[in-house]
């Protein structure tokens, strides 16, 4: 018998641990599938939603935007998936059932791709939300041309730099790989301990963001040609550093991904452009192209997933993972929860 249990938020600004509650098997709308989750992954927005009380439309509520599992049921109008397919998906979080931290999630077929056997469910769960964010930011905010699913991968070298600020973050790791596949020479920043990691993702130059000369070093490596920056950290300090890193005499664009990012630092020539995963769905052609490309990158085993850190206890471990997230203890890794480790 399937177990329908969800790790639930039961009050606004909840300070006490989230608890597992039962739910009924959900009905599927047009274009939806029900996924039996095997592994779900943590993103900063999950604990931020609890702490800052946003996007919680009713109680009890469920958060989480990364799932990997097997298709359990297929809704009306879905022909590209069948029961039993291994998939990863980025549920929309529009209802309690369209979220990750539960045993079965409803998600849309257009936000889902098949996961080849060459990736584990745990690895696969690290991809959907931040890959989508990385791709949407490159395409929408920075106007980067990515490879297409049916074209050459990678695209020809452009001999142009692109800076990813925060290359060891989850968004940064996918931004480096996509920019590299688009033919850019990627410059990035990370802690020293993560320099080999970001190079393994395709970064050509990496600098320690704690180094006082970091902007100077970036400018030197970039020559006079840096016009594109993806700031995956987007604090006031990193936005300022991103602006200062632009070397192109004609200016350029900086993609930022937090609503709090300060766009007043824009100048006549340097534009700060707010982006986020939502751009992939506000502009469905961007989302379609990104997911078609993702399917090919997975089939060909080109995409490197984030290093996985499995947190003990499955869904029971999420409260601990959120605490570590709040304390900033995530470095070049993704916290992953195995549903089978949960005690119901
Ligand atoms: N708008 C959207 O749709 C959207 C989507 C996804 C994420 N986000 C937001 O984007 C941010 C990144 O998300 P994520 O999941 O990628 O985060 P993450 O993986 O949890 O980020 C952790 C990483 O950030 C790096 N970092 C921290 N401060 C840095 C700095 N000053 N300079 C360079 N790197 C720094 C750390 O690098 P080291 O360990 O190497 O020091 C660490 O590896 C979060 O604030 C998240 O809420 C927004």
Automatic annotation (TrEMBL):
SUPFAM superfamilies: GroES-like, NAD(P)-binding Rossmann-fold domains. GO terms for molecular function: oxidoreductase activity, acting on NAD(P)H. InterPro entries: ADH-like_C (IPR013149), ADH-like_N (IPR013154), ER (IPR020843), GroES-like_sf (IPR011032), NAD(P)-bd_dom_sf (IPR036291), Trans-enoyl_RdTase-like (IPR047122). It comes from the Eukaryota. Residues 15-337 form the Enoyl reductase (ER) domain. It holds the Pfam family ADH_N. This is GroES-like protein. It comes from Rickenella mellea. The lineage of its organism: Eukaryota, Fungi, Dikarya, Basidiomycota, Agaricomycotina.
């Amino acid at each position: 018998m399937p177990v329908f249990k969800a790790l639930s938020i039961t009050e606004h600004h909840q300070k006490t641990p989230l608890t597992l509650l039962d739910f009924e098997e959900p009905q599927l709308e047009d274009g939806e599938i029900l996924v039996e989750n095997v592994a779900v992954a943590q993103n900063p927005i999950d604990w931020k939603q609890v702490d800052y009380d946003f996007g919680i439309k009713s109680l009890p509520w469920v958060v989480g935007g990364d799932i990997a599992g097997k298709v359990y049921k297929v809704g009306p109008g879905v022909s590209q998936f069948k029961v039993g397919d291994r998939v990863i998906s980025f549920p929309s979080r529009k209802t309690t059932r369209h979220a990750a931290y539960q045993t079965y999630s409803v998600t849309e077929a257009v936000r889902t791709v098949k996961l080849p056997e060459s990736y584990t469910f745990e690895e696969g769960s690290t991809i959907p939300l931040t890959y989508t964010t990385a791709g949407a930011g490159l395409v929408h905010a920075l106007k980067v041309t990515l490879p297409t699913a049916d074209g050459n991968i990678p695209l020809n070298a452009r001999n142009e730099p692109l800076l990813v600020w925060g290359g060891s973050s989850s968004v940064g790791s996918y931004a480096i790989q996509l920019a590299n596949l688009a033919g850019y020479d990627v410059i990035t920043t990370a802690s020293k301990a993560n320099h080999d990691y970001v190079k393994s993702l395709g970064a050509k130059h990496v600098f320690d963001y704690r180094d006082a000369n970091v902007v100077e070093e970036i400018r030197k490596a970039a020559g006079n040609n840096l016009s594109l920056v993806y700031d995956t950290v987007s604090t006031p300090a990193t936005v300022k550093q991103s602006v200062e890193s632009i070397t192109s005499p004609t200016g350029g664009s900086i993609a930022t991904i937090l609503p709090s990012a300060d766009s007043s630092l824009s100048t006549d020539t340097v534009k700060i452009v707010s982006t986020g995963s939502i751009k992939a769905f506000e502009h469905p052609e961007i989302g379609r192209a990104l997911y078609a490309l993702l399917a090919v990158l997975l089939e060909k085993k080109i995409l490197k997933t984030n290093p996985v850190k499995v947190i003990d206890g499955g869904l029971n471990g999420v409260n601990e993972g959120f605490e570590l997230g709040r304390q900033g203890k995530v470095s070049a890794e993704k916290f992953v929860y195995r549903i089978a480790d949960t005690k119901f």
